[in-house]
TrEMBL record:
This is [histone H3]-lysine(4) N-trimethyltransferase. One of its GO terms (cellular component) is nucleus. The gene is Smyd1. Interacts with HDAC1, HDAC2 and HDAC3. Interacts (via MYND-type zinc finger) with NACA isoform skNAC. GO terms for biological process: methylation. It catalyses: L-lysyl(4)-[histone H3] + 3 S-adenosyl-L-methionine = N(6),N(6),N(6)-trimethyl-L-lysyl(4)-[histone H3] + 3 S-adenosyl-L-homocysteine + 3 H(+). Residues 52-90 form the MYND-type domain. It comes from Lophotis ruficrista.
Length: 491
């Protein structure tokens, strides 16, 4: 079954997994298999005044809707593009007196679209909203309670003059949002800013070692007054060579966890048992739990103690990060590393987690040399664990490259930036803002590297002068969340 720009894929019934997507032709790494606009999408409650409600870009000055005083937009183009989806919402917010939560707003947007177009197949969709999985039958008591509260709030918000839907259908829509809501990120891809429904993407099954990745593209603001200006969409991109007839898979959770933990997470969030090759054979689990080999090999008891200490420390670190106590975080990381280093192997995930936090926070505090040392070890570990074309790996390598560059380690910095660029060209594509940023860094570090190779002494003199004259580029404040996960789960 193919429809409107979806000719290269088909929906099929996958054994034991329900529906899935299959390639109709060959794809190479970096190819866009399909791009899909959101069926409906909303900005998170906490960011409604900071993010454009049409293209989901973070902007300094946003225009506010004069009617409901709730929605914000980059400019008139984004505001005009939003009107079809915002018109009903706008009057409902005015009538209700305030905007409801993101879940209610997303459900309402879906219902208004159904009211306009019907619930059958819409243009470019392989499946209808009616046919999406809702997993309501698998809900636990707590989730059922939340569902009832959502349905109640929805009925209070839903205008009497709009089409009225039955309770069962409303529950279906909330179930769909619960297990199929896709996380939308800002233009740099670093912060989760909203949630959307993409029916075609929902058909792609999970694999812990997938052959595709999903990237959120916010449209192109340089293309003013063109259809691309606000054309926010997701892109399904190939990570490896895909042959016609191969199933297209994406990872719903980050790979950096042992198979048992990933399976628990998938069962809890998406209600299925993962049977992928990596989980069945526990591939890479040995690396993720590696301990020091050789003469002084630690006892099982010591390993257990150190891992427990690491878990406790990670909890304390999260608390300190929430409170912005970054020097405290660094102190805890150093203490933890001292305990881990004689016991854990260099690909052990507990060691890698501490190295990642330490390098990020030290960079923010501008202690670049120590940060670079930790970042290098983190990247060396990641390279042995992640798929070579993994977006999270690409972002980590980029961060390590920037840290080395700031530390004045120009050769290593340039090398890492080039490596990150090669990965992100495949995962994000050449026109994504983050890839463009990297291209600029690549050119800059290449120029500095040539200068360094010609005359080291002069390079350091010029670098010193430049740092005195300009404020050093401050790294972004460390975020308390890991990279946005693929599907948004209501907390």
């Amino acid at each position: 079954m193919t429809k409107g720009g979806m000719e290269s894929v088909e929906v099929f019934t996958s054994e034991g997994k329900g529906r899935g997507l299959k390639a109709q032709k060959e794809f190479l790494p970096g190819d866009v298999i399909f791009a899909e606009p959101a069926y409906a999408a909303v900005v998170f409650d906490s960011l409604t005044h900071l993010i454009c409600h049409t293209c989901f870009k973070r902007q300094e000055r946003l225009h506010r809707c004069g009617q409901c005083k709730f929605a914000y937009y980059c400019d008139r183009t984004c505001q005009r593009a939003a009107w079809l989806n915002h018109k009903n919402e706008c009057s409902a917010i005015k009538r209700h007196g305030k905007a409801p939560t993101e879940n209610i707003r997303l459900a309402a947007r879906i219902m208004w679209k159904i009211e306009r177009e019907g619930s059958g197949l819409s243009e470019g969709c392989l499946v209808s909203i009616d046919d999406l999985q809702n997993h309501v039958d698998s809900f636990g008591e707590e989730e059922k309670k939340e569902l009832r509260a959502d349905v109640e709030s929805f009925l209070e918000f839903w205008p009497p003059q709009s089409q009225q839907f039955g309770l069962q259908f409303i529950s279906h829509i909330f179930g769909v949002i619960n297990c199929n809501g896709f996380t939308l990120s800002d233009q740099r891809g670093l912060q989760a800013v909203g949630v959307g429904i993409f029916p075609n993407l929902c058909q792609a099954n999970h694999d812990c070692w997938p052959n595709c990745t999903v990237i959120f593209n916010n449209g192109n603001h340089e293309a003013v007054r063109s259809m691309f200006h606000t054309q926010m969409r997701i892109e399904l991109r190939a990570l490896s060579k895909i042959s016609p007839g191969d199933e297209l898979t994406v990872a719903y959770v980050d790979f950096l966890n042992v198979s048992e933990e990933r399976r628990k997470q998938l069962k809890k969030q998406y209600y299925f048992d993962c049977t992928c090759e990596h989980c069945k054979k526990q591939i890479k689990d040995d690396l993720m739990l590696a301990v020091k080999e050789g003469e002084g090999k630690p006892s099982a008891e010591t390993v257990k103690e150190v891992i427990q200490f690491s878990k406790d420390t990670l909890e304390k670190i999260n608390k300190a990060r929430m409170e912005g106590l970054y020097h405290e975080v660094v102190k805890m990381c150093r203490e933890c590393l001292k305990k881990q280093e004689p016991v854990l192997g260099d690909t052990n995930i507990y060691l890698l987690r501490i190295l990642s936090i330490a390098s990020e926070v030290l960079s923010y505090l501008q202690m670049f040399e120590e940060a670079a040392e930790y970042a290098k070890r983190m990247v060396d570990g990641y390279m042995k664990i992640y798929h070579p074309n993994n977006a999270q790996l690409g972002m980590a390598v980029m961060r390590a490259g920037v840290t080395h560059w700031h530390a004045g380690l120009i050769e290593a910095g340039h090398g890492l930036i080039c490596k990150a660029y090669a990965i992100l060209l495949i995962t994000h594509g050449p026109s994504h803002p983050i890839t463009k940023d990297l291209e600029v860094m690549r050119v800059q570090t290449e120029m500095e590297l040539r200068m360094f190779q010609q005359n080291e002494f002069m390079y350091y003199k010029m670098r010193e002068a430049a740092l005195k004259n300009q404020k050093i580029h401050v790294m972004p404040e460390p975020s308390n969340e890991t990279s946005p996960s693929l599907f948004h789960k209501k907390e």
